[in-house]
Design a protein that fits this description.
Elements (H helix, E strand, L loop, with lengths): L1 E5 L6 E4 L4 H8 L3 E4 L6 E6 L9 E6 L5 E6 L2 E6 L4 E2 L3 H10 L4 E7 L5 E7 L5
Antiparallel strand pairs: 1-2, 1-7, 3-4, 4-7, 5-6, 7-8, 9-10
């Protein structure tokens, strides 16, 4: 199965996996969670426990206006959808989501004068 893998602080890459639950779990390093934030026939697969166990943040999800709606932790897979399962990601969607997630992001916290913690996000150079 052809998918787009997006690792923290790296450029997206197309990989082939066998499509089994085990192969998906291996890529995201734990139990999978599939979310469907777009109207396209694709799923975003991530580690279901990523934020809970402190996995590094990876990319920001934005709404149509560019407002951040969520931050995904750990490795992300963008996969195609068939009638009843995950499937190959078409070249059209590989191109679209590679462009959307091309630039790696870095995340850090700052504490303001009132003692509130704010998550900061910026683009960064990819790590090797």
């Amino acid at each position: 199965m052809k998918v787009l893998r997006i690792q923290p602080k790296k450029y997206p890459e197309v990989i082939e996996i066998d499509g089994s639950l085990e192969s998906l779990q291996k890529e995201v390093a734990g139990p999978i969670q599939a979310v469907y934030p777009w109207d396209d026939p694709v799923a975003l697969i991530c580690n279901e426990e990523g934020k809970l166990i402190g996995v590094s943040f990876n990319r920001t999800l934005m709404d149509a206006d560019g407002t951040p709606t969520d931050v995904i932790a750990g490795t992300i897979l963008i996969v195609g959808l068939t009638e009843d399962d995950f499937g190959d990601l078409s070249q059209e969607y590989i191109d679209k989501y590679e462009k959307l997630f091309h630039q790696p992001e870095k995340f850090w916290h700052e504490i303001d004068e009132r003692g509130r913690t704010h998550l900061k996000i910026d683009c960064c150079d990819p790590e090797e």
